[in-house]
Amino acid sequence: MLRHGLAMLALTIIAIAGWAYSVNYNTMTAFDRVRELRGQIAEEREALQVLRVEWAWLNAPDRLQRLTEQFASQLQLVPLVPDVLSHTAIVPFPEDPATTVEIAPVIDRSGLIPVPVSRPAAWRAE
Amino acid sequence: MTDFAAPKNLRTGAGQRADWRLMLLMASFCLCYAAVVLNMGLLAATDPTEPVIGDAASKGRPVRGEIIDRDGNLLAANLPAWSLYAHPHVMKDPIKVANALDRIFPDIDRETLLKKLTGQRRFAWIKRPVTPRERQLVHDLGFPGLHFGNREIRIYPAGHAMAHIVGSVRAEREDVRYTELTGSAGIEKHFDARLRAPELAGQPVRLALDLPVQQAVRAVLGDGMERLTAKGASAVLMKVRTGEVVSMVSLPDFDPNAKPIFFRGKAEDSPRFNRAAQGRYELGSTFKVLTAAMAIEAGVVNAETMIQTPSQLKYGRHRIGESHRMPAQMSVENIVVKSSNVGSAKLAMMLGTRRFKEYLEQLGMFDPSGLELAESAKAKPLLPPYWTDLSSMTISFGHGLAASPIHLAAAYATLANDGLRVRPTLLAGPQEPGERVFSKETSREMLRIMRQVAVRGTARRGDVPGFEIGGKTGTAEKIGARGGYDRNRVISTFASVFPTSDPEYVLIVSLDEPTDRSGRKPVRTAGRTAVPVAAEIVRRVTPLLDMRPRLAPVTEAPLTLNTGAE
Which string of b and e fits B130-162 if b means at least 16 CB within 10 Å? Predict the structure, then answer.
């Protein structure tokens, strides 16, 4: 009986040792993987930072202004001035009520829409 | 092994075997204890570490905090970069290396490079910072003894537009592993400790400025400056209720990403000089609004009180005159609207020097503006060394006291903010409400008078329909080379508030030596120079600030009426 018990004990110890061994090595590989992933995250963060700065750089106001001036003929943009703002009430909507309902909320919720009117700056005209 | 569990042998069967067993037992216990002691010693000797889940790479190096505008646009950011250094003693052929490096970096002098690499030194910086492309080229050379150190470079994506505000950094304590950047101007210097604090590295400093508005103001001001052949210009756009500076422009400006160029000439003409926060100018008639507000607040007059305004006012040997003909007597309202020097001087006298000074102090005219810039801390307004009654009389119309446009903006904002003191700030967010300087009634009355200046006074060209601009012009002659004032060199300023019925913004536009040559005779008055520029700024920035024109009720019938039924 005692012999059997001891044999069982020995087997259990061997099994537990084996389990502990595998857990140990699994943990170590997991740590390696975590380290690797953290390295990747750090790299990605750095790339993100570079891209963020590049985005800001490409959208620099000076650059955008230079480009709009360069492509003025294609873009046909005019500075946004208050004269181009008006009330929706003044806009002649089509009489079909269905269309009116359709268009109005799409354009602007504040009830004001920009009307595309080209207007030179006041003091340049003087 | 089984005997171990039956110790009865110990007592009975004495002899060699028992002794041997005892020895074995003791030895095993000793071994166990030795193992424990050894382990404890090992634990005590090594540095305590957590299991290696956290890694240095994930935390990264401590980085300088970013600066963003009120909508989150990047104004100052970091880019990882490298610095190139050499260990000349491990190089096989320094001359070959020098030639190769010379081809990659044309800006490095070949002779100095050669001297560095062939000398006795074991360490030499070659170039910092190095771009990724250059780094790759050096890598491709494959020479031993060339190494890269980590460093950061500071980038200002907004460029010229925010140059005066963000300031600059300087590299301090350079090291092959890490370079410490220290603020040397502007926000970078003022908030240096905050930007460097490692625990706050992830949190950017958010400014009150608005990049698109800043760019629009800069563009309009630049056009105006060119058209009027002015030497310099500045503009301040400030929120009346909070004192947040939404835009602050000083022209000429500079590229913050370029290496500073040495400027020959007077410091206040340098592009690096911030005219809006650092420059101190006599701001001329714009002070008349403040004088009138003080007189009304103190109760010595009201807007309708008639004041005798002779064409000249004598005080001792000094004479105060007008720039153009004025009626013999004028109401306080007309003194402001028609800009009478004599009238203002009389108001200051009725108020008395003591009270006049008290009000100026409450408006912040005696102290630096408190703006969060390293430069503005030194910009204390220039006051007369001995303050006489004559000083009060000239300061009442803006001569004899030189303050920055920011000071003027804060004083006008205080007047427009129902009389509660407004302190200028570059940081986004509300501030503690300031103490009361003027009553609400005085504030209303002065806003009404300022509106009249734009309707029928000197600022008629500044009236943008729908925005109820009110303000005051000021044309101050500069001090000439031989002393005294120079008629042909002026600083023209327009200080305005809009909309006057519910003030939201204060706009100060100041031009240095403008001349309008569009007419037959050159004109330099603010009404023809600063005012049209300010009007154009209002037209351009109000859509960006989400302000809509408040149109007067339409009296004529609209062209199309959608009645639905015919």
Answer: beeebbebbeeeebebbebbebbbbbbbbbbbb
Taking phi first (over 0 means left), then psi (-120 to 50 degrees means alpha), and beta for anything else, what does residue B284 get? left
Q: Provide the whole-model pTM.
A: 0.78
B29 pLDDT band, cuts 50/70/90, is very high
DSSP code at position B89: G
Asked if the interface predicted TM-score (ipTM) of this complex is over 0.95, the answer is no
* Cα B292 from Cα B447, distance rounded (Å): 11
**Cβ contact B448:B393 at 8 Å:** no
Contact state of A53 with B74 under an 8 Å Cβ cutoff:
yes
Instruction: Retrieve residue B410's tokens.
Output: 């804060």
* The pLDDT of residue A103: 45
> Could you identify the residue written with the tokens 């926000």?
B187
Q: Are B148 and B129 a contacting pair, CB within 8 Å?
A: no
Burial class (CB in 10 A: 0-12, 13-18, 19+), B504: middle
B230 touches B514 (CB < 8 A): yes
> Contact B408/B266 with Cβ under 8 angstroms?
no
Note the pLDDT tens digit of each residue in B462-518.
Answer: 888 888 899 999 988 887 777 777 778 889 999 999 899 899 999 999 999 998 888
Instruction: Report residue A58 as tokens.
Output: 């490409």
Residues of A with CB under 8 A from a CB of B: 2-3, 27, 31, 34-35, 38-39, 41-42, 45-46, 49-50, 52-53, 56-57, 59-63, 65, 79-83, 85, 87, 89-90, 92-93, 95, 97, 112, 121-123, 126
